[in-house]
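hiii, so i know i said id send this last week but things got crazy w the move. better late than never?? heres the sequnce for the chain we talked about at the cafe, plus the structure i predicted for it. fair warning i was half asleep when i ran it
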Amino acid sequence: MVATKEMPLKEYVLKGNAACAGCQDMVALRHAHKALEGDVIQVVPACCTSVVQSLWPKSGLGIPVLNTAFMASAATASGVKAALKAKGNDHTIVMVWAGDGGTFDIGIQALSGAFERRTDFLYICYNNQVYSNTGTQRSGATPLHAQTTTTWFGKTEPEKMLDFIVAAHEPVYQFTANTSYPRDLFDKFKKAREFEGPKFGHIFLPCPQAWNYPVEKGVEIGKLAVETGYWIQWERVGDEFTLGMHSKRFQDPEKRKPIDEFLKMQGRFSHLFRPKRDDKKIKEIEDFIQHRWDMLLRTFT
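okay and structure toks below
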């Protein structure tokens, strides 16, 4: 793992961007672009990042950015890659940077098509588990029992397990990351540069506005997600699966922190503890967490 002092000093996420206070998207973008060293064209569909990068004619990012329609980011990236190839440019990385709404739901068809065509690009889903940019409506990534503006009493379905859908397309490199572990995130983006073909990254990204927690608590929540087993850090090169060192310690359910520690920090789950703890619903969340662990290890190991 790269030492912090070895990370490039140059910044590609510029001052004065339009991010909310405590936005973890900026942490992810900052370390991703440091790893890619600016040799990247970023494709952004409708999402928080399309606002964060600022409005024309100004930009909050120091790299070329192409905005596109909500459902079309992977198709747009395919076109950009074809144009670069026609120009003889085989070094610039084309990277989609899309939210969960534009990946789990609206953009999944174009993503599937681009992966089936074996397009040489990097697709990143930064997952804040809600349509945060348009009023915090539920998405296919919204967790079981989480409150949103369209699930006032809590979502009745668990989140879609997108990583398995993507894995069925056999990307050359696939990883999960978490903004609370920036060195791990940096290393995985650096590694992604080594592979030719479709690559996919899934980043856990807390959102203080949508999840209703104090803006300074984002890193703590991200770490609790790993320590309770809720989020699993891993990577896969072809068929070679590696469970991340941050998650390996919590493979055993007995070693995980109580899920209450993760849930209680977020206002979107406050109804599970008022007027008293809802044991049934919290047990359902715990069961789904273990189901995801079982699926992951059974599928890839």
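btw The radius of gyration is 18 Å. thought thatd interest u
miss u guys!!
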